[in-house]
Write a structure and sequence with these properties.
extended, 4 helices
Length: 131
């Protein structure tokens, strides 16, 4: 969505999602009083199950996926981009294989660092200093 909208509109969208939407969704799942929380008493749970969010990934991906879908619906289709898609063959050539490989490695390395780090807790002084 960032490539298809103006910067000001994108900044408004990010501010609204971060300051208004995200706190509600995070409260629903992470707070013991949230209606989707697994910490609620069993009699109050929806369908006898709550949501256990491992390392916060459920809330983040729920909000990101929903925001992407809403943004794509609001931005609409690209006019003229796919009108004659069946009449001509579109060839997409890689731009820079070195940069693509570097980006893939950075993403892969960051993913391992985030997921492994999210499974531990900061429960002592050494961990807090390292963070």
């Amino acid at each position: 969505m960032a490539e298809r909208t103006r910067l000001r509109s994108h900044c408004y969208w990010v501010a609204m999602a971060s300051c208004v939407v995200y706190p509600f969704v995070a409260h629903w799942i992470w707070s013991p009083e949230g209606w989707m929380s697994a910490s609620r008493p069993e009699s109050e749970l929806i369908l006898a199950n709550g949501v256990f969010d491992f390392a916060g990934s459920g809330v983040v991906h729920l909000l990101g996926g929903t925001a992407g879908l809403v943004g794509a619906i609001i931005a609409g289709p690209r006019v003229g981009r796919y009108e004659d898609v069946f009449e001509r063959r579109m060839v997409f050539l890689p731009q820079n294989i070195g940069e693509m490989s570097l980006g893939t490695f950075i993403l892969w390395f960051s993913w391992y660092g985030f997921n492994c780090g999210a499974t531990f807790t900061l429960d002592n002084g050494r961990s807090a200093v390292a963070a």
